[in-house]
Structures are given as structure tokens and as C-alpha cells.
Input
Amino acid sequence: MSKLKAEVIKYSKKLNITNLSALRSGNISVRANEKGV
Output
């Protein structure tokens, strides 16, 4: 899960640099399968 967290942080920083920031609303979502669910 830490790899996923790192990817979210990387992506959010990229959005912030390009002024397409989801950080302003404070909401970035990730959908992933965990334990087959």
C-alpha cells in the first residue's frame, strides 16, 4: 500500500505544478482491489 500512497503523492504534486490542482478541493481518490474485493 505504501507504493500506492507514493504514486498518489507523485500525481498530486504533478497536478499542483500544472495548476490542475485537486489539492484545492482536498480530494484525490484511488480505486484498487484489495484481497479480491
Observations:
- The helical segments are 2-17.
- The two ends are 15 Å apart (CA to CA).
- The chain has one helix and no strands.
